[in-house]
Amino acid sequence: MATSPEYTLPLIAGRDGELLVKVRAVPGSRKDAVLGLHGDALRVAVRAPPERGKANAAVVEVLAGWLRLPRGEVSVHGGAGSRDKWIRIGSLRHGELAARIRTALGG
Fold first, then answer.
1. Which of 13, 56, 83, 90 is most buried, by the most CB atoms less than 10 A from its CB?
2. Residue 21, SS3?
3. How far is 19 from 24, CA to CA, in rounded Å?
4. Count of structural domains within the chain
5. Is there a contact between 55 and 63 (Cβ–Cβ < 8 Å)?
6. Looking at residue 26, what is its pLDDT?
7. CATH number for the domain that contains residue 45
């Protein structure tokens, strides 16, 4: 799992100006945390089990806190029933989101 500044993380522009970030969820983990990269996705561990949307809600909470955003600016856009998800980020521009991710990953 590489966390160098040269990471490749696709930030896709969605409708209404929001950005979409690819996430690989790891439900049932020992802690809630962004672990780094998993290929071209952020790897997000959550303690919540993958049932009745609990893990999805936890992934959103972890990412909102990690990116220092209000909870309402982050939501699951696609892949709700899968470990591989697209997360909508509603309030940041591409460059600002990329910079926050790079900084948080230690790059």
1. 56
2. strand
3. 17
4. 1
5. no
6. 97
7. 3.30.1200.10
Here the contacts of 43-52 (C-beta below 8 Å, separation 24 or greater) are 43/1, 50/25, 50/83
Please tell me whether the overall predicted TM-score, pTM, comes out greater than 0.85 for this model: yes
User: In angstroms, rounded to a whole number, what is the distance separating the alpha carbons of residues 38 and 23?
Assistant: 8
- Residue 55 CA to residue 90 CA, distance in Å, equals 20
* Domain membership flag for residue 6: no
Tokens 């209404």 identify what position? Answer: 16
> Is the separation of the CB atoms in 67 and 104 below 8 Å?
yes
Per-residue pLDDT tens digits for 35-70:
999 888 999 999 999 999 999 999 999 999 999 999
